[in-house]
């Protein structure tokens, strides 16, 4: 009686493979295959629509990001140092034996005293700063208590110095935001974040140059506060760092904006000639 319920394995395979009976395993594989194929199709559609970032474009973005990061490092170096302007009086300002020079930036002012005998006797101006001497540095108090300093019987323009410092801080903030946008663009593989990053970098470069212009005006106002003591002034290497940084981040912002375009500007401006005869 058990023979009535026993079906040979060959017959089961024959019944399962008959054309009129659906196969569960094949249906499951087909269902999974259709889902995987749908995902692949969506990925291909996403890349072909121009929203994704190709490998070639990703390499260009990383190279431009390296340029922007170099500008950020130069900005931090320039903002954090006090070698923005050097002030040098004549040799006879202090006494006949020592000479006093000064340099300051956005946050701090330093004076340096060294012997006149160490300098070139042909020069009538104190300096340069690299001579060995006694140095004294102090931070500006007008950021905290509002007190100003007196340097060579002159007072720096407080409002202009604070404005230039604000421009520098806002510029650094925009650089950080632009870098975050580029990291998200590369990580997510989308071009959407390239335009905000380009805007941040270009605006930060403009603010850097505004900072330099306002600071130079503050130096001129400082020199004009008292004409009784003539001073020789020159902008120092911290300003050079900021100028290079502003140029780098602006160029990087423009390149990010070009990479965000849906077409290549070079192909639009210089179309390829048809080589077919």
Give the low-confidence spans: 1-18, 24-50
| Strand order in the largest sheet | 4-3-2-1-5
> In DSSP terms, counting alpha (H) and pi (I) runs of 4 or more, how many helices?
7
Straight-line distance between termini:
86 Å
C-alpha Rg (nearest Å): 34 Å
Note the overall shape.
elongated
Strand content: 5-15%
Summarize the structure.
54% of the residues lie in helices and 10% in strands. It is α+β, with helices and mostly antiparallel strands.
Model description:
Helix content is 54%, strand content 10%. Helix 4 (158-188) runs antiparallel to helix 5 and helix 5 runs antiparallel to helix 6. It has helices spanning 9-16, 24-48, 55-80, 158-188, 194-224, 237-259, 265-269, and strands at residues 85-88, 98-104, 108-115, 134-139, 232-235. Strands 4-3-2-1-5 form a five-stranded antiparallel beta sheet. The protein has seven helices and five strands, in the order H-H-H-E-E-E-E-H-H-E-H-H. A hairpin with a 3-residue loop joins strand 2 (98-104) and strand 3 (108-115). By secondary structure, it is an alpha+beta fold.
Offer a few descriptive terms.
277 residues, alpha+beta, 5-stranded antiparallel β-sheet, 7 helices, 54% helix, 10% strand, disordered N terminus
SSE map:
Blueprint: H1 9-16, H2 24-48, H3 55-80, E1 85-88, E2 98-104, E3 108-115, E4 134-139, H4 158-188, H5 194-224, E5 232-235, H6 237-259, H7 265-269
Helix pairs in contact: 3-4, 3-6, 4-5, 5-6
